[in-house]
Amino acid sequence: MTDRYLKLPLTFDTARLHADLKRLQPHNWLQHINQRAHNGGWRALPLRSVDGCLETIAVSNMDQTRYADTCYLTACDYLPDVLAQLKCPLHSARLMSLAAGEEIKRHTDNALSFKDGCARLHIPMQTHPDVTFTIDDHTVHFGQGECWYMNANYPHQVSNDSPLDRIHLVVDCTVNAWLSDLFHAAGYQEAAEHYKYGDPSITDENAPQVIAQLETMDTPAGIAIAQRIRSIWQSNRHR
């Protein structure tokens, strides 16, 4: 087992997930901001966002204290209990919908993994066996009501070859002792592969762009990661 993805020992009531989904369907779902990764079929609804804003689904701030529940979440019956079962600091929480017959194209996210201290969890609320993730060229299906971790630093894509819209609750969490214990109880192991920058998506070619993006975030964690990447990149240039 590597760190591409991991099924966690948590399960949730699918009937109650569906009931909350029915409440939320009429609201204003937003097009995903990564326009290069989809053709219009990828939408999201913010349940926790920066300042509880309903007009953004971007994970644009790494300060956990800035994130607040939106009115969409507080109107739900079960989803607040689902999030309360995650005994770790929460950042963003969104419902992520991929329309039937659509795909999320291959892409990567930076500094978003258990090893980086920020883990992305998926809880499928509505799905089908013909919905598949391909993560670092390994294909997996996340089952309804289950809880899965995926390492978003790896190149990944999603295909929805089913007749249903696929809808996941996607939560970004700060790794703490509780989450670490849960991961290791589920058999988590770091990949044996060595990556120069500690992230398979970062190369000598795109390192300057990654550094600039991290510095734009203007957070202590982002600046520290940017400094580490710059040090490696500069040392490689002078070899």
Quick structural summary:
The chain has 239 residues and is of the alpha+beta class. The chain has helices at residues 14-24, 71-74, 79-84, 177-185, 207-217, 220-237; strands at 5-11, 30-31, 42-50, 67-69, 90-98, 103-107, 118-126, 131-135, 138-140, 146-150, 156-160, 166-174.
List the helices and strands and how they pair.
Elements: E1 5-11, H1 14-24, E2 30-31, E3 42-50, E4 67-69, H2 71-74, H3 79-84, E5 90-98, E6 103-107, E7 118-126, E8 131-135, E9 138-140, E10 146-150, E11 156-160, E12 166-174, H4 177-185, H5 207-217, H6 220-237
Antiparallel strand pairs: 1-10, 2-3, 3-4, 3-5, 5-12, 6-11, 7-10, 7-12, 8-9, 8-11
In words, what does this structure look like?
The protein is built from 6 helices and 12 strands. By secondary structure, the protein is an alpha+beta fold. It folds into 2 domains: 181 residues, Sandwich (Jelly Rolls), CATH 2.60.120; 31 residues, no CATH class. Strands 1, 2, 3, 4, 5, 7, 10 and 12 form an 8-stranded antiparallel beta sheet that branches. Strands 6-11-8-9 form a 4-stranded antiparallel beta sheet, with no helix packed on it. It is globular and about 55 Å long. It is 25% helix and 30% strand.
